[in-house]
Amino acid sequence: MALHTSRIVDLETQMAEVRVQINTQHQDLKEAISALAASTKDNINALAASITCRWEKSSVQSPPRADAGTFDEPQHFRHQQRHS
Q: In angstroms, rounded to a whole number, what is the distance separating the alpha carbons of residues 37 and 31?
């Protein structure tokens, strides 16, 4: 019976050690996910700022042409009509 009790204590000790490892890994994983989320947010914000800046520069440097057409009547469509 003493051997059986000793084995139970050993298993309980091992389970406690595994719980500590799981909790530590869980905390490490939560921290890694938080860091990844922050980095992703920063990258998205930087990309959005870059796109906005490029769009603003292109719209300032290239005013719309008078013959550029509209969304409803693209330039290539009008070009095809002229040659028909």
A: 10
